[in-house]
């Protein structure tokens, strides 16, 4: 399995899901749940673009990604 990168910010998680980031797991062992994504240069580019406010996407697509993230948060089984 490739190295994973843990993220707990729901907005960033939804953005990564929208941009095609590969979810490899969910870590529920910390105080805040972390979504684990496959660590890659592409992932870090999405993160960089997110925090520098360079990403744009259709509102409905992002809303669907938020809903997907919430579904995973509540129903994900490893």
General description of the model:
With about 80 residues, this protein is of the alpha+beta class. It has one domain. The protein contains three helices and three strands. Strands 1-3-2 form a three-stranded antiparallel β-sheet, covered by helices on one side. Strand 2 (about 25) and strand 3 form a beta hairpin. Helix 1 (about 10-20) crosses helix 3. The chain starts with a strand and ends with a helix. The mean pLDDT is about 90.
Topology:
Blueprint: E1 4-7, H1 10-18, E2 23-27, E3 34-38, H2 41-51, H3 59-75
Antiparallel strand pairs: 1-3, 2-3
* Strand composition percent: 15-25%
Morphology: globular
Quaternary form: single chain
Indicate how many domains the architecture comprises.
Answer: 1
Count of alpha/pi helices: 3
Largest sheet: 3 strands, antiparallel
Helix content: 40-55%
* Helix and strand sequence: EHEEHH
Rg calc: 12 Å
Strand line-up in the sheet with most strands = 1-3-2
The separation of the N and C termini measures 14 Å
Q: Quote the average pLDDT.
A: 90
Provide the low-confidence segments as ranges: none
How does the helix and strand content classify structurally? Answer: alpha+beta
Tally of DSSP β-strands: 3
């Amino acid at each position: 399995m490739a190295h994973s990168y843990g993220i707990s910010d729901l907005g960033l998680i939804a953005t990564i899901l929208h941009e095609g980031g590969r979810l490899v797991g969910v870590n529920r062992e910390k105080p805040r749940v972390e979504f684990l994504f496959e660590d890659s240069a592409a992932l870090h580019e999405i993160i960089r673009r997110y925090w520098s406010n360079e990403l744009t996407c259709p509102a409905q697509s992002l809303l669907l990604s938020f809903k997907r993230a919430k579904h995973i948060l509540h129903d994900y089984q490893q």
